[in-house]
Amino acid sequence: MKQRKRRVETAAVRGGADMEKKNAPVTPPIYQTSTFEVTDNEEQIRVTSTDRYYTRWGNPTITLAEETVAALEGTDAARVFASGMGAITTTILALLKAGDHIVAQRDIYGGVTKFFSEWLPKLGIETTFVDTNEYEQHARAIRPNTKMLYLESPTNPSLRIVDMKKAAALAKQHGLISMIDSTFGTPINQRPAEYGIDLVMHSGTKYLSGHADLTCGVISGRSDLIDRIDESRKTLGGCMDPHAAWLLIRGMKTLAVRVARNNENALRVAEFLEGHAKVRRVHYPWLKSHPQYAIAREQMSGGSGMVTFEVDGTGEDARRVSEAMRLFTLATSLGGVESLVSIPVLTSHAMISAEQRAKMGVTEQMVRLSVGIESVEDMIEDLERALEAVSASVAMKG
C-alpha cells in the first residue's frame, strides 16, 4: 500500500521520523559531537558522504531537522545553517559566479539589500532591484546573464504579497533560479514550492523555532540545487550546531498550533489598529484594505503574525508609541510566542540608506508588531494605552 503524504500539521511534529513501531526514544537524541569514530580507514572513506563523518559536513540531529523542513515545505531536500543570512549568502555564493546578474525585489530584508548592493559587486555579481508587484518591470530587468529571481513574501516590514505563480512562471520562462524568503509566511500559511518556486528560505530564528532561544537559517528546494548549496556549506563552514538543531526540531513540533494562534491574534490586532484615529495606515495581508488582499487569500491559509502600522504623526511619535507598550516587548526579531515591537528604520532596515528605505516605502512612522500567542484582549489594551498616552503627551506639548 502506497504511503500517503503527511499533512503539514503531522509533518511539523513527526518530520522525517520513521513511523514504524520500534523500541526507540520518543524525543530524538542530540548527537552533541564534532566527529564520529570508525573501525578502519576503509570505513572512514565510506562515511565521508554521510552524516556520521564530521559535524561541519553533517550530523544525525541536523539531518532530522532538515528532513522535517523538507517535509513541511514539500520539497526534495533542505539544509540548515547557523543563521538566516548564512543560508542566503551561502546559497548565492554556491549558485552564482562573477559576471552573473540577479533581479531582486526592492522590498526585502535590509541585511539582504546590503549584501546584494555592497558585497556582491566586489565579487562581480550585479543586482537590479525592481518594484515588488510590478511583474513587467521584473521581465524588463532580465538580461542574458541573469541567473536568479530573488523574492520575499510577505515582505518585511510592509507585508506586500508576491504572486508566486506569476513570479515562478517568469523565472522558468527565462531559465532563472527562483528563490523566496518565506520567513513571515511560514510553511503553515504558504508553501511556495507548490507554486513552482525553486528555493524557499527561512530565518529559522523566527517562527520555525518560535521561542527566541536560537539563531538559524534554512534553505529547501530542488535536490540538484540543494546538493550544490551543501558543497558550499561544507567549505564556508556555516553549519548549525547539533544542540541548536535539536531546539529547532522541538520548536517545529508546535509550529502549526502556534501559527494558527499568531494568525488569529494578528488579524484582531490589525482590525483594531485600522479603526484607531491615531493610526494612519495598517499593513496586514488579510485586511480587505490591503492592495494584494485577493492574492493573499488565494495563496495563504492565514495572514501571518506580523502587523505593521504607521502612526499618524512623526517618527518620534512612532518611537514613543513603541516605548509606551508593556505587553509588546521592545526588541528586534519576530516569530516567537511572545509579542514584540520594533521600529524598522532602527532595526531590520537600519543598515541600509535612507534613500533605499524610501524606495521601499519604509517610513519613520512605521511600527512593526510581532504578534505572539498571549491574550489578544490584553494586546489590544496595551496598544490602546500606548496610543492614548502618546496622544495625550503630544496634546500637552501643543
Quick rundown:
The chain is of the alpha/beta class and 398 residues long. Helix content is 41%, strand content 14%.
Structure description:
- 41% of the residues lie in helices and 14% in strands.
- It has helices at 8-14, 41-47, 60-73, 84-95, 110-119, 135-141, 164-173, 186-189, 223-236, 242-253, 255-274, 293-299, 315-324, 354-360, 376-397, and strands at residues 77-81, 101-105, 126-130, 146-152, 177-181, 199-202, 217-221, 279-283, 306-311, 329-330, 340-342, 366-370.
- Strands 1-7-6-5-4-2-3 form a 7-stranded mixed sheet, with helices on both faces.
- Strand 2, helix 5 (110-119) and strand 3 (126-130) form a beta-alpha-beta unit.
- The mean pLDDT is 94.
Present the secondary structure layout.
Elements: H1 8-14, H2 41-47, H3 60-73, E1 77-81, H4 84-95, E2 101-105, H5 110-119, E3 126-130, H6 135-141, E4 146-152, H7 164-173, E5 177-181, H8 186-189, E6 199-202, E7 217-221, H9 223-236, H10 242-253, H11 255-274, E8 279-283, H12 293-299, E9 306-311, H13 315-324, E10 329-330, E11 340-342, H14 354-360, E12 366-370, H15 376-397
Parallel strand pairs: 2-3, 2-4, 4-5, 5-6, 10-11
Antiparallel strand pairs: 1-7, 6-7, 8-9, 9-12, 11-12
What distance lies between the first and last C-alpha atoms, to the nearest angstrom?
75 Å
In the sheet with the most strands, the strands line up as 1-7-6-5-4-2-3
**C-alpha Rg, in Å?**
22 Å
Order of helices and strands: HHHEHEHEHEHEHEEHHHEHEHEEHEH
Please describe the biggest sheet, giving its number of strands, its sense, and whether it closes into a barrel: 7 strands, mixed
- General shape: globular
Give me the count of strands: 12
Oligomer: single chain
Low-pLDDT segments: none
Helix/strand-derived category reads alpha/beta
Total of DSSP H or I helical runs spanning 4+ residues: 15
Kindly state the mean pLDDT as a whole number? 94
Helix content: 40-55%
